[in-house]
UniProtKB/TrEMBL annotation:
Protein's UniProt name: Molybdopterin-dependent oxidoreductase
Family per record: Belongs to the prokaryotic molybdopterin-containing oxidoreductase family.
Organism phylogeny: Bacteria, Pseudomonadati, Pseudomonadota, Gammaproteobacteria, Enterobacterales
Required cofactor(s): Mo-bis(molybdopterin guanine dinucleotide)
Keywords from the named record: Metal-binding, Molybdenum, Oxidoreductase, Periplasm
Statement: the UniProt record of this protein carries the keyword Metal-binding: yes
Amino acid sequence: MTSTHRKTHSSHWGAFTARWQDDRLVITPFSGDPDPSPLLQNMANALGHRARIAGPMVRRGWLEQGPGPDNRRGADEYVALSWPEAYERVAAELQRVAGESGPEAIFGGSYGWSSAGRFHHAQSQVHRFLNTTLGGYVRSVNSYSSGASAVLLPHIIGDINEIARRGVSWQEIAQHTEVMISFGGLALKNSQVASGGLSEHTERGFIDQAARRGAAFISVSPLESDLPAEARGEWLPIRPGTDAALILALLHVLVSRRWSDEAFLARYCVGWEKLVAYLRGDADGQVRDAAWAAPICGIPAARIEALAARLHGRRVMVTVAHSLQRAEHGEQPVWLGLVLAAALGQPGLPGGGYAYALGALGHYGKHHNQVAFPALPQGKNGIDRFIPVARVADMLLHPGEKFFYNGRHLTYPSIRLAYWAGGNPFHHHQDLARLRRAFCRLDTLIVHETAWTATARHADIVLPATMTLEREDIGGAPTDRHLVAMQQAAAPYGEAKDDYAIFTELARRLGGEAAFTEGRGAREWLAHLYQQMRERLRERDVSVPDFATFWQQGILELPQDQDGGRLLRAFRQDPERNPLPTPSGKLEIFSQAIAGFGYADCPGHPVWLEPQQRPDQQHPFYLIANQPESRLHSQLDFGQYSVSRKRGGREICRLNPDDARRLGITTGDVVELVNGRGTVLASAEVSARIMPGVVQLPTGAWYDPVDPLAEKPVCRHGNPNVLTLDIGTSSLSQGCAGQITVVRVGRFAGEAPEVRAFEPPVAASRRPENSGG
Ligand SMILES: Nc1nc2c(c(=O)[nH]1)N[C@H]1C(S)=C(S)[C@@H](COP(=O)(O)OP(=O)(O)OC[C@H]3O[C@@H](n4cnc5c(=O)[nH]c(N)nc54)[C@H](O)[C@@H]3O)O[C@H]1N2
Ligand SMILES: Nc1nc2c(c(=O)[nH]1)N[C@H]1C(S)=C(S)[C@@H](COP(=O)(O)OP(=O)(O)OC[C@H]3O[C@@H](n4cnc5c(=O)[nH]c(N)nc54)[C@H](O)[C@@H]3O)O[C@H]1N2
Ligand SMILES: [Mo]
């Protein structure tokens, strides 16, 4: 299966062709992509990498003692299983748990990005499997990406996808915007990626076009690198987690200079007067002006005043990155970004207004396809219990306890079994030692993985999944005008199987095969889903070739809808006839609904709230744990591009020259980042592009603890989630707050331990049946 023909294929970071040259896989970006991503090269050496999982495996403790809570998870040996025995054991265990406790004891949220390819999308597969064979599962809602904003924005502007994200296009910004102020920047490293696929990387070009026309870009961020060089913009360093205070001060300047657009605020918004009272400090005597914000944000008051003057009277676009809301009280800067745009009178104007998270992913600010490629139907989940996704460890550690969420008082379910396919909680979750303790409470953890991630290493049963290049699929996203036939380029690694094939066999053993497969094999599903899209297009008088022709030609261009901003424009034209889908029909600067929930950590209008994590004597530095430029999350961390961006096999941690000098650290030193949750080693890089008092270590280095059972583990590779705090953003949304924490930084003394993250666990042999176990 090593054909020398070019195969078309796709990934979350771009479309490409793959071709074998001798025994080397040559990856060539899609010719229509103006700015292809270097992440593509992570795939070149991935297929046969030793970190891949070659066959089904079972954890020794589970094999010998049977299901049940077990503190050895993460440190145990693995024993190889044949596929028939693996199927037998998984099916029996699902049957046992569902029989004894019902599907409400099974957690099937399985959060994670999986791979591009809409049919084999692992999360859809596992959900469909649990629904059709067991009647359902406990699910998770929202995402690690936008945990706080996904709950907040519907209250204050309306549906997050329709209005907050579709309101503004890059094209329009390139043509009309005069000032683009981006809280959290517009890092091109981030817009390389879009879930489902991204055939054209256009952000760099649009930013360049806007800057050439004279648009001014201002990036408010602790890191200079969040602003692309093409923007020729201005970097305004800010202390992490303090943007809400800065925006309040900007609003105060606008009000006191009579620069606020009172006509806009009166006609299109509710609650402005309540916020003005808060800015003046009517209730508590605290004026929120530039002098008040300056020491909080680390920005001189005069600079805040000057910034407000630059925004006044211009066509301004405000963006707030996802990162700002992945933090304590993350709702506040998201809400205030909208208020700033409203106070400047911008929403609904061409090139003006608020574009939440624009630039954070490659599919924001793009046009939408007239017809989206259909998702694999997931069936009906008979269990109506859920958690906000980032509360997974709380759920496992505190079954039966109550928690607040978006006006509801919910109870954590009692989970016995978790099933994970297509996600890596030991990448995405916070406080990994706590997460391990939480997973140790389970009877059973089942994981499908392509490679030996830390999540696979904590599982009781590990089933090897194929990578996309080893199967056929269709790549597409609602904002990508190319649909890509993901043709198979290689035979499966070892005994790996497609998630679909694994679930089909399990469903057969559980008596649900017909419901799960509907009688279709993988190729038939692709043809079936394609045909559905083709029919919907035909209803709009668009004709596209049949499946066989599409498959052979490899790439299909789809018609798009050019008018994403129409809802906001219509609202601006006539807010009474075209109200927003909020309770008041207007932009909500004050939300009666949120106020009614009575949450001290998220009141009825946006406010500044002190976070509990602030630098102190013991932890003098902020740690920014942001998205990595060298890969998508933890995916293909062993790939050649990701590895080339490490030093000595360790992830790189950036710090400011002043801090480095004081601590006696130079580029290339191994440093340790320490707090009450653990220690992380990384390779230091001294850089003036990060503000003093802040260090940055991206996410995604595979968790590699020296002693996996340690209460405060030491990760020798550089996974910042050892250090981050596992708390919700607020009672409103309970989102992930992993972007920022506080640490102590020092040079690592002595011989640094070798990184072992990509060494698979040693396959232990099975002990004779009656050796006592
Ligand atoms: N501290 C901190 N933590 C964060 C963030 C942060 O900013 N700071 N960001 C958060 C965000 S925004 C996100 S979205 C999450 C991302 O967290 P995840 O989405 O969980 O991270 P990925 O590494 O993409 O995990 C996908 C996993 O699926 C596997 N996989 C790929 N294809 C297949 C397949 O076909 N079948 C199977 N069975 N498996 C497959 C991959 O090998 C990989 O291990 O992380 C979050 N965590
Ligand atoms: N290459 C690559 N791209 C990705 C991903 C990836 O893993 N790799 N993940 C994708 C996913 S799933 C998502 S959700 C998006 C996430 O998009 P974001 O969450 O926006 O991405 P981050 O890189 O975590 O953060 C963006 C920048 O915000 C800045 N920042 C952090 N804290 C603060 C703060 O308090 N105030 C201000 N003003 N700035 C702050 C940091 O310097 C950081 O570089 O990225 C997507 N893009
Ligand atoms: Mo995300």
